[in-house]
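Please decode residue identities from the backbone states below.
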């Protein structure tokens, strides 16, 4: 029901002799005209169609108004458009443009089963929330929540989409692992205090290849930062090798992943790695000569100076064998800055300076992807009470990230927005004022005539409507 405050006319500051008045009686208008591009990206990737197949739907088909595919599309496209909370959809469910974006054949909701729902074509917040509230063991006998998520199927889907986007077989695939924190402000399941972050939180772990999201695992924060890394990495590597049997896979991570269990797992399964190593006095002694050289150069040039050393190293207790370590002896204005990485990559192919500066340091870009994931696409929204529900939210957010990646790759290459982050794309390209007219034969969306990036929008539509490029069969 429309509240009184939204129907009243509101008076603003006058302009000269003219009054400025505003109300909410404009009719079928939307602020999300650019969401039509996301719909086309979804069509090309078949993302939400296949996302729906990762859920077992035990509902009675004769009583369903919203399919799992429509629910998934509404949730994922909504996140990409900036609607992080389910409550937003109580109003969005009446938007004919949102109904169009998720593929509703009745954008006005005139034919809904129940009279009270007519005029509301899309799912409400309570309906969307049932997917997150469904228990793992739910069946058709369950009372309310009957849509069960298969997390393994979700992981396989993201890897499959990544493989499909490759136009040829790569010789090397570099996978980045990194944890992050999600602050918790309620009494969620598996809620623990983390001393490093200084608050109650979850500790999700992300897996990316470049800017492509491959997986996310939600974890409680009372664990080691590397726990579950091998379990996360194994199925992804297996699926990649099923497609590309000869591909070299390199895994990168910070010193939090430098654990015997993970390194041994990689070595047994032919996965190369480059991992940070926490510094200690034994390691620092290994590069003492190089650090002195760097110090002298810094005193002469007044600029940062670096030296590298390649050596074999083994801990006294925790490592099962000696491994190749590259040490960076760096001297800055503030003093020495030693750093170390351990790797399986041979020195004959990966020279020490290149290994550290070009290969290992490039993993810092993943931190930007996690920031985009959590800040722009609301991967940090963990307001469900159940741990499982919050894990499902993480995957929906990752799917929204995949839509943004697809938009950049498929539609915006070569434009000024080719590298834009999700928040920039949302403000500049997706949030467009639109007038929506629905007739028997078409949905007519009139975008704002004052929209400044009309040429980019038109080019994006042309590219997204073009036949997809043939993918490699490798």
């Amino acid at each position: 029901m429309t509240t009184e405050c939204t129907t009243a006319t509101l008076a603003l500051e006058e302009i000269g002799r003219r009054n400025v008045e505003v109300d909410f009686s404009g009719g079928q208008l939307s602020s999300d005209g650019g969401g039509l591009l996301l719909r086309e990206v979804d069509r090309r990737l078949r993302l939400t169609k296949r996302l729906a197949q990762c859920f077992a739907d035990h509902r009675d088909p004769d009583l369903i108004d919203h399919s799992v595919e429509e629910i998934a599309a509404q949730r994922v496209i909504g996140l990409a458009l900036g609607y992080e909370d389910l409550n937003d959809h109580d109003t969005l469910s009446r938007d004919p443009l949102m109904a169009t974006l998720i593929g509703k054949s009745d954008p006005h909701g005139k034919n809904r089963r129940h009279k009270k729902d007519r005029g509301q074509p899309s799912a409400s917040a309570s309906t969307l929330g049932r997917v997150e509230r469904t228990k793992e063991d739910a069946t058709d006998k369950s009372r309310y929540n009957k849509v069960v998520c298969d997390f393994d199927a979700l992981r396989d889907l993201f890897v499959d989409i990544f493989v499909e986007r490759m136009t040829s077989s790569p010789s090397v695939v570099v996978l980045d692992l990194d944890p992050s924190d999600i602050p918790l402000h309620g009494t969620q399941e598996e809620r623990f205090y983390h001393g490093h972050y200084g608050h109650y939180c979850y500790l999700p772990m992300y897996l990316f290849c470049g800017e492509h999201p491959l997986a996310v695992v939600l974890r409680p924060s009372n664990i080691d930062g590397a726990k579950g890394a091998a379990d996360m990495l194994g199925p992804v590597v297996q699926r990649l090798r099923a497609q590309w049997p000869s591909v070299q896979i390199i895994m990168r991570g910070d010193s939090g992943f430098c654990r015997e269990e993970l390194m041994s797992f990689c070595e047994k399964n032919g996965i190369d790695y480059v991992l940070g190593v926490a510094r200690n006095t034994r390691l620092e002694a290994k590069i003492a000569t190089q650090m002195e050289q760097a110090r002298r150069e810094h005193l002469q040039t007044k600029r940062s100076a670096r030296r590298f050393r390649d050596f074999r190293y083994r801990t006294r207790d925790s490592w099962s064998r000696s491994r190749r370590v590259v040490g960076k002896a760096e001297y800055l204005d503030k003093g020495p800055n030693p750093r170390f990485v351990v790797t399986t990559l041979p020195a004959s192919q990966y020279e020490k300076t290149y290994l550290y500066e070009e290969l290992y340091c490039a993993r810092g870009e993943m931190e930007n992807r996690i920031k985009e994931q959590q800040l722009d696409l609301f991967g940090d929204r963990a307001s469900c009470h159940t741990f499982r529900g919050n894990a499902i939210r993480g995957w929906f957010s990752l799917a929204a990230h995949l839509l943004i990646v697809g938009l950049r790759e498929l539609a915006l290459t070569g434009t000024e927005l080719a590298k834009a982050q999700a928040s920039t794309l949302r403000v500049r390209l997706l949030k467009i004022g639109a007038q929506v007219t629905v007739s028997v034969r078409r949905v007519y969306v009139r975008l704002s005539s004052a929209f400044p990036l009309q040429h980019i929008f038109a080019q994006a539509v042309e590219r997204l409507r073009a036949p997809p490029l043939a993918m490699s069969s490798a």
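Observation: The two ends are 55 Å apart (CA to CA).
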